[in-house]
Structure prediction request, 162 residues.
Amino acid sequence: MLPSSRLPEESAEAERVCRRRAMDLLARRDHSRLELERKLTGRGFEPALVEQVLDDLVRDHLLEEDRFVESFIRGRVRKGQGPVRIRGELAQRGIEEASASSALAQADCDWTALAAAVRAKRFGAEAPADFKERARQAKFLQYRGFESEQIRTALDLASDSD
Prediction:
């Protein structure tokens, strides 16, 4: 067994290494607290140490859920994903439903226009020729995370443009 006089030094070293690893991850992109917790514990750090380091990062404003959520939403909008899918992915990353809904409501995005643009990019400007094609395009937009009304409007906009 190690002498007790070395334990605080080893503890401080472990904390320093854990914080450095967390900072390295945050330097690449924003993470949610749950994502960082999973990654750090997956790399062998003790859960209590991870919690302490994450609390310190939050206190130092280096780990901010709001900033993560805004960045995440912007990135998913650029990829052409809708609010349903984004909300689900945020939930998987430990973001509460209320925070996700609030951030999506504040997002500067016309979801219907985005759905129409995603549809046009994938299927072209022409409206669906028949019911089967309309259903196929609707299923695609549903998979991308758009709500029923957004999908219906996007498909109707395509029909109106003909």
About this structure: The chain has three domains: 7-63, 66-106, 111-160. The radius of gyration is 22 Å. The chain has nine helices and no strands.
